[in-house]
């Protein structure tokens, strides 16, 4: 049905808010059987890559775009390392709006850039950082008819908080721990907000890359998180733990998810599992990893095994797979 239709009473929408859904939300929650056994936990995986454009961004984007359309905007603008661009472009097309995306040159995975361009966005690559792109987007948003749809737009977080509602509904109880990646920090704030509105906040663990500005996990390649102050406040309040991860930890967790559970997520998603491995957890705890994007978002991250063709005989095939 879509996030707005499902959670209308929890969102800042009304009768005048247009319908722009692409069927976002309602993503699968899988039990990670092999990882649960290894870690001594009841581990579940929330597959946000099953959203329409392949990432969690769609939950918040549908609300931000609906509200922008309601306010009379004609152009959406965002800074992005990829997923926000793809989502903004798709929902702009759905709403009949123009989309402008500013992205750091060379910082966006090809698949994400292709998504944005295929759905009609004007993609501008900057000789600068994500932070430069966001600064310029804020300036553009001051122009008539423009609406900024990065997570600094509060409507984005309103939509993204709905993942907490889905987890509580699917599990029937509150999880003990929820782990997720930490890039800009918007989703960390949104998940905390969602659980707070339900009246109970589980332990939240957020995994960030030590090499923020250059990390291999491109979706969290953000040097200066837009929501750093809010996340710091959540940390001080004992509601969030931030775990700083090296590249090898993220890569190892990413491969484990694929090879042990058959879940192909984008590299940044694996920061959730990597962070879990670094904190103390009670045996048997009910734990959820929010996997924020699909692996097809960044196929360039997959190691090239250098496949060599073989002769079309059984002996040759048996030798190749030995």
Provide a quick synopsis of the model.
This protein is α/β, with parallel strands linked by helices and 322 residues long.
Describe this structure in words.
There is one protein chain. Helices cover 39% and strands 16% of the residues. Helix 10 links the parallel strand 8 and strand 9. The protein contains 13 helices and 10 strands. The strands form 2 sheets. Strands 1-2-10-7-8-9 form a 6-stranded mixed beta sheet, sandwiched between helices. The protein has 322 residues and is an alpha/beta fold. It folds into 2 domains: 201 residues, Rossmann fold (3-Layer(aba) Sandwich), CATH 3.40.50; 97 residues, Rossmann fold (3-Layer(aba) Sandwich).
Give the helices and strands, then pairings.
Blueprint (H helix, E strand, L loop, with lengths): L2 H4 L22 E3 L1 H7 L2 E6 L9 H14 L4 E5 L3 H13 L2 E7 L5 H9 L3 E5 L3 H11 L5 E3 L5 H7 L1 H10 L5 E5 L4 H13 L4 E7 L18 H9 L3 E6 L1 H15 L9 H6 L9 E6 L22 H8 L1
Helix pairs in contact: 3-4, 3-7, 4-5, 7-9, 8-9
Strand order of the largest sheet: 1-2-10-7-8-9
In the CATH hierarchy, what is the class of the largest domain? Alpha Beta
Largest sheet: 6 strands, mixed
Number of helices: 13
Averaged pLDDT = 95
Helix content: 25-40%
Compute the number of structural domains: 2
The portion of residues forming beta strands comes to 15-25%
Quaternary structure classification: single chain
Q: Which properties best describe this structure?
A:
single chain; 322 residues; alpha/beta; Rossmann fold; six-stranded mixed β-sheet; four-stranded parallel β-sheet; 13 helices; 10 strands; 16% strand
């Amino acid at each position: 049905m879509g996030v707005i239709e499902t959670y209308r009473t929890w969102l800042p929408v009304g009768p005048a808010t247009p319908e722009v859904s692409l069927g976002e939300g309602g993503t699968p929650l899988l039990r990670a059987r092999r990882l649960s056994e290894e870690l001594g936990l009841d581990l579940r995986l929330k597959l946000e890559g099953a959203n329409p454009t392949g990432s969690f961004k769609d939950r918040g984007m549908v609300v931000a775009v609906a509200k922008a359309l309601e306010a009379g905007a004609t152009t959406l603008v965002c800074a992005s390392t990829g997923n926000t661009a793809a989502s903004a472009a798709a929902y702009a097309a759905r709403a009949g709006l123009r989309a402008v995306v500013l992205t750091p040159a060379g910082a966006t995975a090809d698949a994400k850039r292709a998504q944005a361009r295929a759905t009609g966005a004007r993609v501008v690559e900057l000789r600068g950082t994500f932070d430069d792109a966001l600064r310029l987007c804020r300036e553009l948003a001051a122009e008539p008819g423009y609406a900024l749809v990065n997570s600094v737009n509060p409507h984005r977080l309103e939509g993204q908080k709905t993942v907490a509602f889905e987890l509580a509904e699917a599990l029937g109880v509150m999880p003990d721990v929820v782990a997720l990646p930490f890039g800009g920090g918007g989703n960390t704030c949104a998940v905390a907000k969602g659980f707070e509105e339900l009246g109970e906040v589980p332990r939240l663990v957020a995994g960030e890359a030590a090499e923020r500005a250059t990390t291999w996990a491109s979706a969290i390649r953000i040097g200066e998180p837009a929501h750093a102050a809010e996340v710091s406040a959540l940390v001080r309040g004992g509601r969030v733990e931030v775990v700083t991860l090296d590249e090898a930890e993220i890569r190892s967790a990413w491969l484990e998810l694929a090879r042990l559970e058959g879940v192909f997520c984008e590299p940044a998603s694996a920061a959730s599992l990597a962070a879990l491995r670094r904190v103390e957890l009670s045996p048997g705890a009910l734990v959820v990893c929010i996997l924020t994007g699909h692996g097809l978002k960044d196929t360039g991250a997959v190691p090239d095994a250098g496949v060599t063709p073989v002769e079309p005989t059984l002996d040759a095939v048996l030798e190749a797979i030995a």
